[in-house]
Amino acid sequence: MAAPAKKKKTARSRSALKRQRQTARRRARNLLWKAKLRQALRALRKENDPAKLPQLLREAHSVIDRVARRNIIHRNKAARYKSRLARLVAQRLAQSST
């Protein structure tokens, strides 16, 4: 993912400039983690091989937990994601066994 374009510095005080730099760094880091989250979710939803689903579910849960721990997404949203993904995997495994 490309780094965000530099924005014009609008702050005046030194502390405001520092705050602006910190915010830009944090935003870039948060966007990176959100991209990892979307990638993990997409990989799990796209997978058709039932043998790979449990492993992908563990990986997705791990990414979701890390993103929630960093307060990039709310912990309730993380729980909702995990619940829905587990239900999706269970349904797909049940379909493949019948």
Number of strands: 0
**How much of the sequence is in beta strands?**
under 5%
Q: Shape, please?
A: elongated
Major sheet characteristics: none
Key attributes of the depicted protein:
mainly alpha; 74% helix; 98 residues; 3 helices
Characterise this structure.
- This protein is mainly α and 98 residues long.
- It has a domain at 37-97.
- It is built from 3 helices and no strands.
- It has helices spanning 14-46, 53-69, 75-97.
- It is elongated.
Short account of what is shown:
With 98 residues, the protein is mostly helical.
Blueprint (SSEs and pairs):
Layout: H1 14-46, H2 53-69, H3 75-97
